[in-house]
Design goal:
globular, 7-stranded mixed beta sheet, alpha/beta, 204 residues, binds glutamine, 32% strand, Rossmann fold
């Protein structure tokens, strides 16, 4: 069965996510049809959704302008998996501390933009992540820190004493970029494993 995976592509890194999604689907013995989302009307048909990194102020402006913001909220309300990375995490949070980012208020965390990697623009670290047997090679690029986490949010990984990977219901939010290595285990965990449990719940 082919899974339709939407990657919000109004700005930021998209092609690496498409490759990672296809690789994760293959690990699951399935195929993914990756759809780049730049306009409204496409999210509804997606089984899983990915909100990538980039510049959160720009992504925020464009997803609201294009009418995609409400569709992302509806996708999550339907219990369908969403992986939000870096600027994507900022966007789904409750508060980014920056009035230029109109957050979607879907994930019960507050974040601080550009909290990691200020000195050296980016760094890579092996990160133990709940649900993965080996540490994940995590690339941080002017990454947000998660400051406050609501009661319903599970912390999957921490760096420097702060959460950098969290899960709440169908949403996985990451401070880092899982698409910049050959390792697609997080795409697998957040999208395909999660989809399996959604489908198991909705089977009669
Ligand atoms: N610094 C960016 C922001 O605040 C996020 C960086 C990224 O997505 N790599 O929007």
């Amino acid at each position: 069965m082919t899974i339709r995976a939407g990657v919000v592509a109004v700005q930021g890194d998209v092609s690496e996510h498409a490759v990672a999604i296809e690789r994760a689907a293959a690990r699951h013995g399935t195929e993914a049809d990756v759809v780049e989302i730049r306009e409204s009307g496409l999210v509804e048909d997606c089984d899983v959704l990915l909100l990538p990194g980039g510049e959160s102020t720009t992504i925020s402006r464009l997803v609201h302008r294009e009418g995609i913001a409400d569709e992302i909220a509806a996708h999550v309300a339907a219990g369908k998996p969403l992986l939000a990375t870096c600027a994507g995490l900022i966007l789904v949070s409750m508060d980014s501390g920056d009035g230029r980012v109109e957050t979607l208020n879907l994930l019960d965390v507050t974040v601080e933009r550009n909290a990691f990697g200020r000195q050296r623009d980016s760094f890579e670290a092996p990160l133990p992540v709940t649900g993965l047997d080996e540490p994940f090679p995590s690339v941080f690029i002017r990454a947000p820190a998660i400051d406050e986490v609501g009661d319903d949010v599970d912390v999957l990984a921490e760096w420097d004493g702060k959460p950098v990977a969290v899960r709440q219901g169908p949403i996985v939010g990451l401070s880092f970029h899982p698409e910049l290595t050959d390792d697609s285990r997080i795409h697998d965990l957040a999208l395909f494993d999660a989809l399996k449990s959604v489908r198991a719940d909705t089977q009669p």
